[in-house]
């Protein structure tokens, strides 16, 4: 079993090491994910209903109020 | 609440932000969907023939596929952020319906990407040819299945079926998963979208290969790639036309206003002609459109009636018929729908208040009124039915651009296949230039297709039940404006990076000669 996981590890390890254009792509992917999750999500995109209300009952009351006022 | 009481600036910025994100996201997705299958076909030829040239071809296109995938991956996540922040009423309203398809998509994408993608890229010479080929096919199938779930969710918004609205929670609850999955709108949307993505990818392969032939480089790779792309593209473009035709009928059935807008049909007609080419002289007034507002148009007699109903003499309602109703054809006017919508909204409010006050008999009566009128719930937010008409010129031009380009692509595939089989492609330089310049046109066709689907259904975010104005969160519009521009910058940078890296890979591909 250990041998199996070792093989899988080296499969990925060698694959990443031997990448050429892939290295540049990985850098872009990492920067992009950082911007998306650490900047956009954190600072600009809180979940409105989760942030402002504690229970589903409160959320549904609020949405009904918004839909019917 | 009436339309006039909503913060329309916030609604419009939220819409603009979502449109920007979706349009940019959609620049990356179709190439992934289609190229994955083209790669699988190329690798299958390699495994069958054992010829190294096919391995070289597969690896080259796989590199371009990887660039597009890496740049585009996770751009769709932003749409989900926007649902939670900017469109919280909508997210709550549809939550239970979207949960299942999006969860399946997430799990499927994770497993697919972490296993078979890795084998596809790292597995050359490390796993057997058969296993590698299987992985490539599984990546293609998996990517497309991933798209299925997103498109099913979108189709539900265009044609909400298989659900029940719970007035106590204000949420739609899934009643039948299979009804949602196999609704005619979902089936047509999926088939038409993926076939158009295949066509775009085939055009991409064709165009890049044409560039090699124009530069007299990598001719063996280019000629073979063009044969695969034009064969695949021709089959898929014909399939795309068939599924597009089916989609049009489905739109006519469930979204007649969108259908009328796609054709710029203001007044309904029997024996309705299809506008093959047309230009508005000026933006027609939705209240009182005039026939002279067409600068020029070429029509095909009876084709619109046939396209909508399979009967060349049938009546096709225009925008005016939908707004004002048409008793002879059983069309309920938007005026009446607005009245029923207002009854439904008032009944929901009364139901909620009666429940709170534990007044069961009032709650029961309110619920009865609500259920009788819920079908037109979303109309109740409006007083003026003309506000329920989408931007007709935008929908019309988008639709006709998409269809016109689709027809052009069929012709391009046909000609490149004929010339390719005869071995005449390198000499037909005009054809090669057309194939090369078809790449931006293919992207344009994709984006206009999206615009037909999404602008054409306005003002609905969920057809007939929820307009965009009641779907937005009550948040500060400044943050929406800031993120709109931030997204614009980030996506543009990503797009430039993709184009630059791809061009570099294409230009630096070592010449493999003519054979």
Topology overview:
The complex is a heterodimer of chains A (69) and B (515).
Chain A: H1 2-17, H2 21-44, H3 48-52, H4 56-68
Chain B: H1 8-49, H2 52-72, H3 77-85, H4 88-122, H5 129-158, E1 163-166, E2 171-174, H6 177-181, H7 184-214, H8 219-254, H9 256-263, E3 269-270, E4 274-280, E5 294-300, H10 303-309, E6 315-316, H11 319-324, H12 334-356, H13 360-373, H14 392-421, H15 429-455, E7 460-462, E8 466-467, H16 468-471, H17 477-507
Antiparallel strand pairs in B: 1-2, 3-6, 4-5, 7-8
Helix pairs in contact in B: 1-2, 1-5, 1-7, 1-15, 1-17, 2-8, 2-17, 4-5, 5-7, 7-8, 7-15, 8-9, 8-14, 9-14, 12-13, 14-15
In short:
The complex is a heterodimer of chains A (69) and B (515). Chain A contains 4 helices and no strands. Chain A has helices at residues 2-17, 21-44, 48-52, 56-68.
Plain-language structure description:
- Chain A is an all-alpha fold.
- Chain A has one domain (2-68).
- Chain A has 4 helices and no strands.
- Chain A is elongated.
- The mean pLDDT of chain A is 84.
- Chain B has 515 residues and is mostly helical.
- In chain B, the strands form 4 sheets. Chain B has a two-stranded antiparallel ribbon with strand order 1-2. A two-stranded antiparallel sheet of chain B has the order 3-6. Chain B has a two-stranded antiparallel ribbon with strand order 4-5.
- In chain B, a hairpin with a 3-residue loop joins strand 7 and strand 8 (466-467).
- In chain B, helix 2 crosses helix 8 and helix 14 (392-421) packs antiparallel against helix 15 (429-455).
- The longest helix of chain B has 42 residues, at 8-49.
- The mean pLDDT of chain B is 91.
- The chains are: A mainly alpha (69), B mainly alpha (515).
- Chain A binds chain B through residues 11-12, 14-16, 18, 21-22, 24-26, 28-29, 32-33, 35-36, 40-41, 44-50, 56, 59-61, 63-64, 66-69, and chain B through 1, 63, 66-67, 70-71, 73-74, 77-78, 81-82, 84-86, 88-89, 91-93, 118, 121-123, 126, 167-171, 345-346, 348-349, 352, 470, 473-475, 479, 482-483, 486, 490, 494, 497, 501, 505.
